[in-house]
Design brief:
Length: 116
């Protein structure tokens, strides 16, 4: 005689848990990019580096890395400025592009944990 199994799937709970895990993964990914960015942000007095923030909008499943200094955009975009060794323009864009595999892995790991 064949064994019988009953499977109950509650899609609403599963979706809620996966979205929450995605939000956690996005925040961890943004924190990672912020850490790499902080190692490249131009330094003079250190003020710009102190304005870096990682944030996540869990409803939209979007994360951001931002620097809020009054000259952060200019320092990021101007490729003709001189910087100390290891410090560069594009101090957010570069780390984000280079960290894409790590970002994806951090998000995937949180979602896998939620599916256990």
């Amino acid at each position: 005689m064949a064994a019988r199994f009953t499977l109950r799937f509650n899609g609403a709970i599963a979706e809620r848990e996966i979205r929450a895990a995605g939000g956690r993964g996005l925040f961890k990914a943004a924190e990672h990019v912020l850490g790499v960015s902080n190692n490249r942000v131009p330094l003079d007095e250190g003020f710009l580096q102190s304005t870096g923030t990682a944030s996540v909008d869990e409803a939209a499943l979007q994360s951001a890395v931002s620097f809020d200094g009054p000259y952060s955009v200019i320092q990021h975009e101007r490729l003709d400025f001189r910087h100390a060794p290891g410090r560069t323009a594009k101090y957010v864009e570069g780390p984000l592009n280079e960290s894409a595999p790590i970002v994806a892995a951090l998000i995937a790991a949180e979602i896998r944990r939620a599916l256990r």
